[in-house]
Amino acid sequence: MGVEQKLGNMGVVTTTLETMVNWSRTNAMWPMLFGLACCAIEMMSAQASSYDMSRFGMELMRASPRQSDLMIVAGRVSKKMGPVLRRLYDQMPEPKWVIAMGDCASCGGVFNNYAIYQGVDEVVPVDVYVAGCPPRPEALIHGVLTVHEKVKGEKFKDLAKS
Amino acid sequence: MSQIEEVSIEKFKHLVSARALTGETMLLNMGPQHPSTHGVLRLLLELDGEIVVNCIPDIGYLHTGIEKNMEAKTYQKAEVMTDRLDYMNTMGNNLAYVMAVEKLVDLDVPARAQGLRVILTELQRIASHLVWLGTSGLDLAAMSMFLYCFREREQILDIFELVSGQRMMTTYFRPGGVWRDVPVEFEKAVRDFIKIFPKRIDEYESLLTKNPLFIDRMVDIGHLSKEVALQYGVTGPSLRASGVNWDLRKARPYCGYEQYDFNVPTRTEGDTYARYLVRIDELRESLKIVEQALNKLPLGPVRSENRKFVPPPRSEIGVSMEALIHHFKLWTEGFPAPKASVYSAVESPRGELGLMLEGDGGPKPLRVHLRTPSFDNLGVLSQIVKGHLVADLVAILASIDIVLGDIDR
């Protein structure tokens, strides 16, 4: 049913396994449905009609950490939420990536106080930081594409080491 | 993190029934990461099969210390914190705050600024109800509602971006008026929205209101009686769906709401479906207010001329020594407020949003306290879900429309 039936024999493409695997990972990256605060609303906007993240193979938000590869930390992380966030991260299967969306998740933002982690990187390792309070959906999409670029350059032997 | 106290379970045993302790009923956690808790709310459920026996909300997963942070900032700077409280109603939060400051220092507000405040707060109410409609549709598996509602919401956010440069955290209202006058494109953008939106509400209604599946999930679910609602301090659409006609815009008009002709939609059933109908009607009423306010919007200044509290316009700073001094004083020290305590309340999309502000003679507030509607509305949840199925709990939770930023603050 695919393009090969219309065009006949498409021939052979040679590439490395690494490139192939990384390419397939970028095009079906499932984010976890996990909103914390204001940024979650912009994350929903990015999923909704005007911005439509399904263009990047990401329309499927998984409610379960076990089925997702990308954690978008959308909002401020309080001291009470930190351990929960870590547990969700630990439940995600490898390989996994984290985007710190917004100023609060990146560095604490305007909330320099007793209740908020000054950056979610105190709790989980972060791959990409997206600035803004809250970031526009375009900024989030740019962050996602930056993760894709990062994934495309990953080496198997580095993964084995970690 | 180092000082975590060991808490004994004995203290919490009274929250569940005796049957839970023998293992006859099951205790189940819902949240904090759960798609239908609308944020990071944790519900501890005691279940008998699929029937909810007890529901204990556990809040605080988004506690941000906003009240404390506001006390460390001057009156102008504390306003940015109010945006991040209830992030669906940023304009309304700003309004409650600036009204409190204006009351505290006795500041006048020009008529044009009042008109703009009404237009933008009502647009915000529509945007908030649209998010509610979209997400509660999503909870009941009406996926397309989400896409339709966010389409219209983007249009409102574009208007906000036009006037303030930001989509969500606008901080557009300032003590003594608004940040700056709206651009010329503003009127056309709002008129376009007014023209298009009534048809869109009909579209939502054609998808949901008479939909038999939707009615099955909503009617006679989560009945909230008038008495219980009043006892728990429930406000907003949830209260009005239980037959109490209480809306601060009518009962205690502020910002010139008394000039506009609108109805307060009420229902008497008090179930989830009634709450849905009230909010749909509120969309129409809010649109009516926006249209009237836009037609009546007077020309003139948008900020008070009282230079002790309101910074002068940029154009004056280069030519007037006085203006330069005022600008410098206001942005370095801030303005002092008298030793007094004021309370201002606005009708947010979720109910009565009150802000208590206490001045101590200096440029920073001594105490800020918020009476947030979601907090009181959530209190009633454990009463109204008893005896319903877990699937109905999702519908009920969606229908009381909580925002966790508003609860935990």
Structural descriptors:
heterodimer, A: 162 residues, mainly alpha, Rossmann fold, three-stranded parallel β-sheet, 8% strand, B: 409 residues, Cytochrome-c3 Hydrogenase, chain B, 2 domains, three-stranded antiparallel β-sheet, 18 helices, globular
Which secondary structure elements does this structure contain, and how are they paired or packed?
The complex is a heterodimer of chains A (162) and B (409).
Chain A: H1 3-7, H2 17-27, H3 38-47, E1 70-74, H4 82-91, E2 97-101, H5 102-107, E3 128-130, H6 137-152, H7 156-161
Chain B: H1 18-22, E1 26-30, E2 42-48, E3 51-58, H2 66-71, H3 79-83, H4 90-105, H5 111-139, H6 143-164, E4 173-174, E5 177-178, H7 185-208, H8 212-218, H9 226-231, H10 237-240, H11 248-251, H12 272-296, H13 314-317, H14 321-332, E6 341-348, E7 351-359, E8 365-371, H15 373-379, H16 381-384, H17 390-399, H18 404-408
Antiparallel strand pairs in B: 1-2, 2-3, 4-5, 6-7, 7-8
Helix pairs in contact in B: 4-5, 5-6, 5-12, 5-17, 6-7, 7-12
Word description of this protein:
The complex is a heterodimer of chains A (162) and B (409). Chain A is mostly helical. Chain A has one domain: Rossmann fold (3-Layer(aba) Sandwich). Chain A has seven helices and three strands, in the order H-H-H-E-H-E-H-E-H-H. A three-stranded parallel sheet of chain A has the order 1-2-3. In chain A, helix 2 (17-27) runs antiparallel to helix 6 (137-152). Chain A is globular. In chain A, 41% of the residues are buried. Chain B folds into two domains: 9-58, no CATH class; 66-408, Cytochrome-c3 Hydrogenase, chain B. Chain B is 48% helix and 12% strand. Chain B has 18 helices and eight strands. Chain B is globular and about 80 Å long. The model of chain B has no long low-confidence stretch (mean pLDDT 88). At the A-B interface, helix 3 and helix 4 of A face helix 2, helix 5, helix 6 and helix 18 of B.
